[in-house]
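Wed. Picked up where I left off yesterday with TetR/AcrR family transcriptional regulator. The coffee machine is broken again, so keeping this brief.
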Amino acid sequence: MARTADHDERRRQVARALLRSVGRRGLARTTLADVADEAGVSVGLVQSYFRTKSQLLRFGVEYMYKQGEARLLALAAGEGPATVREWVLRAAETLLPLDDERRLELTVWLEFLPATMADAEMSRLHRATTRQLVDAFEQAFGEGLRAGELPPGTGARAEAAALVAFVDGLTVHHLVTGGDFSEAPVLASLTTYVDRLFADPESS
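Structure written out below (C-alpha cells, as returned):
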C-alpha cells in the first residue's frame, strides 16, 4: 500500500513540475527533460510513468482539473455557505485565477486548450470536466429554485452553462488583458452577474 502511495505521490510531483514548466516556457517548448529537471528527478524516472509527452500532458491536465474539483468540494466542508446564492458566488470565485496557484493552473489551462482540438483524449477530458462543472451549478440552481431564491421559470441548465462561460471569459481577460479585468473589477463583475440571477423581479 505504501509503495502504491509513493508512486501516486511521485506522479503528482511530476504533474506539478509539468504545470510549472508549461507556465514558464509554454506548452510547445516544454520537454520531458524540462519536466524532469523541474521535478528534480531523472528523465528515465519520468518516462517510467509516462512513456510519451502526450501521456504526461493528459495526466497534468487531469491533475489540474482535480485541483479545481477539490476546491469546490471544500466549500461543502464544515458549515458551508448559508444560501445557494452564496455557494454559487464562492464556487465561481474558486474558478478565477486570483492567487498564485490558480493563476499558474489557469495560465497552463490556456496553453492546453488548443491541444483539445487535435487530441481526442484531451478533448474528452475537457468536455467531461466542463460537463461536471455545469452539472454542479445546475444542481445548485435547482436547489435555489426550490428554496425560492431564484425567480420561477429560471432555466437551471442554461444558466449553469452561461455562468461557466462567463467565468471562463473573466479568466481569459484577467490573465491576458488586465486593466479593466484586474482582480477588483473581475470580482465586482462576477458579484453583479450572480446578483442579477438571484434578483427578485417583484422588488425591481
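Quick read: The two ends are 60 Å apart (CA to CA).
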